[in-house]
Design goal:
Distance between the termini: 43 Å
Structural class: mainly beta
Largest sheet: 13 strands, antiparallel
Strand content: over 45%
Helix content: under 10%
Shape: globular
Oligomer: single chain
Length: about 260
């Protein structure tokens, strides 16, 4: 069960403030959930506050949002944020954004107990104090319109991964999950375009580059491992209409 509410408060002119909150109760019954919490009604809540300033000097938008969430199986209240500035004109736009977000651990990772039916041995058990993996990033990008039929969108970003979840599966008995103490940082660059050849055909090429600046090659996590992430990606798509715009089609190819 979930209940909540949202409120938008205009402050006059381009300024406005948004507030919201929600609360819930969750009950999970499953044979893999730890007996101490199986079937237990677990409360959670979340809230956020945000502010926007649109059309400053007729060319600038600013926004800031600050949510907080306590999930049913989280070890603590987690905060996230997003701040952005967008400057625009008739032929180009620029944006700068910074954000931090997290992933709530699952019941398997935080509150499970898998037991061998024959021997009674605990084969896999969650860690109730496991931290929420987090991604913090900053991005700078733009949108350019050299002419009416072409849109070019370049961007660059730097992201840092923290509290990565590791699979501590070495022990024969009681395998579990733990938090990786090291951080992993990577840099990315993307270039995408939309070329409207005609009213019935558009060409959309894109290319991206990813480089890890600080990472380990340990494979006990499936996130943030350089050898498991493509350094270069490229794609080309075609989209069009035919039969008097009654039908549409799309076709594409990509390489990693």
């Amino acid at each position: 069960g979930v209940t909540g509410g949202d409120l938008v408060v205009p402050l006059g002119g381009p300024l406005s403030v948004s507030l919201g909150a929600q609360a819930s109760i969750e009950q999970i019954r499953a044979p893999f959930v730890h007996p101490g919490v199986n079937g237990e009604a677990r409360p959670s809540y979340g809230f956020y506050a945000g502010a926007k300033a649109a059309g400053l000097l007729d060319a600038l938008d600013l926004s800031l949002s600050l949510p907080g969430d306590l999930a049913p199986i989280s070890a603590k209240l987690e905060y996230s944020y997003r701040a952005s500035a967008v400057y625009y004109s008739d032929v180009f736009g620029l944006w700068l954004a910074a954000a931090s977000a997290f992933r709530t651990p699952t019941y398997v990772e935080a509150a499970s107990r898998f037991t061998d039916r024959t021997s009674g041995l605990i084969l896999l058990e969650g860690t109730d104090s496991i931290a929420a993996p987090r991604n913090t990033s900053i991005e700078l990008g733009g949108t350019l319109l050299p002419h009416s039929g072409l849109i070019i969108s370049p961007s660059v970003f730097v992201s840092r991964l923290t509290n990565l979840m590791m699979e501590d599966f070495e022990p024969v008995v009681r395998r579990t999950f733990r938090t990786e103490p090291d951080t992993r940082t990577y840099f990315g660059a993307e270039l995408a375009a939309t070329w409207r050849v005609s009213d019935a055909l558009s060409i959309l090429p894109s290319v991206s580059h990813l480089r890890f600046l600080d990472a380990t090659e340990r494979l006990d996590t499936n996130v943030g491992v350089p050898s498991q992430n493509s350094r270069y990606l490229a794609a080309l798509r075609l989209q069009g209409l035919f039969a008097d715009e009654t039908w549409g089609y799309g076709v594409g190819a990509s390489v990693a």
